[in-house]
Amino acid sequence: MTEPRTLFTVAALQSQPVFGDVAANLATLDAQLAGLEADLIVLPELCVSGYSLRDRAEAFDLAECFPDGPLSERLLALSEVTGGMIVAGFAERDGDRIYNAAAVVAAGRPLGTYRKLHLFGFEREVFDVSEGPLRVFEHAGLRVGTMVCFDWIFPEAARSLALQGADVIAHPSNLVLPGWCQQAMLVRALENRVYTVTANRTGTEHREPRPALRFTGLSRIAAPTGQALADGPEQGTTVLCADVDVTVSRCKVLPSGNDVFAERRPDLYGGGPA
Amino acid sequence: MTEPRTLFTVAALQSQPVFGDVAANLATLDAQLAGLEADLIVLPELCVSGYSLRDRAEAFDLAECFPDGPLSERLLALSEVTGGMIVAGFAERDGDRIYNAAAVVAAGRPLGTYRKLHLFGFEREVFDVSEGPLRVFEHAGLRVGTMVCFDWIFPEAARSLALQGADVIAHPSNLVLPGWCQQAMLVRALENRVYTVTANRTGTEHREPRPALRFTGLSRIAAPTGQALADGPEQGTTVLCADVDVTVSRCKVLPSGNDVFAERRPDLYGGGPA
After folding, report:
1. What confidence score (pLDDT) does residue B126 get?
2. Bigger pLDDT: A149 vs A209
3. CA A72 to CA A80: how far, in whole Å?
4. Has residue B2 been placed in a domain?
5. pLDDT in tens, A165-197
6. Of A116, A123, A181, A205, which one is the catalytic site residue?
7. Is the CB of residue B241 less than 8 Å away from at least one CB of chain A?
8. Average of pLDDT values for A1-11?
9. Domain holding B200: CATH number?
10. d(C-alpha B224, C-alpha B229), whole Å
11. Based on the structure, what is the number of domains in chain A?
């Protein structure tokens, strides 16, 4: 009888896709991820389409059905090699609906998608409203909750994933606000005693009528202690790695003896209009 | 007809009380607050008793009933002069119960108390479990929600106050963890688009069998933009002041057009055991 595994390796890819060139972006991803062994790899939001979609028609052109499109196929093949999970942001087509989503695969099998609950800025003109749900995917003993980019500003998103048992929050992002999220993720990790893996992109896009956007890089892996385990640069591409110990993420007790989950008082929260 | 006021001044006192000497601590407070004019003044947690209470008997000795004890009387007198609100941490006696609480007064009138929901470390041996509630007090057009020290780590506390309409979160504290809370309060302010006023103490206490404690100072006033408006030093006493514009705290819309309150999805949060 073997003990369950407690130590895992997680990685974030900080990439710089070219808008609209799915084939080129896939080839770049292949090169960037070649030889990377990790139990969890997180890629940025909309990682092969680019971000500044002009309208729904353009989004549909660059979208795919999970797990049948070109990105899904690459992720499945890659995860068969690593044996671990991969979470990657993409435009998900489902009939005449389209979502800003994260694909989740593990060891060559599709596990599902998470459809971003909180759409940022003009995303609301392009993507459909999602019903989520906020979910935790488990593979080989590692529990991974998924949220996408702007979900970070709503503390309820990370909280919901942590309450569902997430060890790690996989967080594909295309961040444009200067440093806010990167700082907040330390707090999300600390308040929930989980690991967080924010995979952000870099580079710029300017596609009229969308505003010119500069993506802020600084991808970050954070620990349940509220400390950064690995940080990416402001510009350029990189792969960040860190170790995850699920005995840490599954213990919600601080050195003070306080259990930040057991001592919640949900009957006394809320108040005001929801 | 006059327009309602939108601009207010808020202040935090960073103090260094002497354990157990209520009279001396009151005299020091008087001196530190002399001439201070502010619409809201926030004092630290347990601001005249000291923190390292050995047991309930000692806590009862240093406690008072609100609004009849020596601290309450000083706060009432002082607030009559300023015309504004004061929020101060104290040990509140209520029959045979005792709470780690915040007293709230305005313009010479008692408004009520808030009893700390989340007790830290050994506080649970000394104070009774509180039923809160998390409340917002209004005076002269300024809405002030109250939480105490360790409540900061539970995002639901600040969220509940903000959803109830708080412009400012008054946060009496006796912080001992290095910098965690001060950093998190920027995120609490940002995610809720409110002002926060954390009044922390400095100095050390070592009262066996309690551990030696060093209080971390760095009191902080934060803005809805997630920026610090005023920061205290790591050691010593000071008064911090900043301006509050309630047209900012009452607008939950980011520059991106996202309304961080209206776009919450409470039907899709939760999950897992409460």
Report:
1. 97
2. A149
3. 12
4. no
5. 999 999 999 999 878 999 999 999 999 999 999
6. A116
7. no
8. 90
9. 3.60.110.10
10. 10
11. 1
| Cβ–Cβ < 8 Å for B44, B173 | yes
Subunit contact B268:A121, Cβ cutoff 8 A: no
B3 is catalytic: no
pLDDT value for B1: 62
Contact B95, B59 (CB under 8 A): no
Residue A2 in domain: no
State yes or no: is B125 an active-site residue.
no
H helix runs in A3-132, sequence order: 22-33, 56-62, 70-82, 123-126
The pTM of the whole model exceeds 0.95:
yes
Would you call B234 a catalytic residue per the annotation? no
Structure tokens of B150?
Answer: 């360790």
Give the residue numbers spanning the domain of B75: 7-268
* pLDDT tens-digit series, residues A35-81: 999 999 999 999 999 999 999 999 999 999 999 999 999 999 999 99
The C-alpha atoms of residue B245 and residue A91 are separated, in whole angstroms, by 40
Identity of the residue in B159, B180, B226 whose CB atom sits nearest the CB atom of A226: B180
Evaluate whether residue B226 is within a structural domain.
Answer: yes
Cβ–Cβ under 8 Å, residues A46 and A89: yes
Q: From residue A206, give the alpha-carbon distance in Å to each of A51, A52, A202, A237.
A: 10, 7, 13, 19
Domain assignment present for residue B67? The answer is yes
3 state SS of B252: coil
Q: Does A137 touch chain B (CB under 8 A)?
A: no
Q: What is the DSSP letter of B129?
A: P
Residue B150: its chain A contacts at CB < 8 A?
Answer: 258
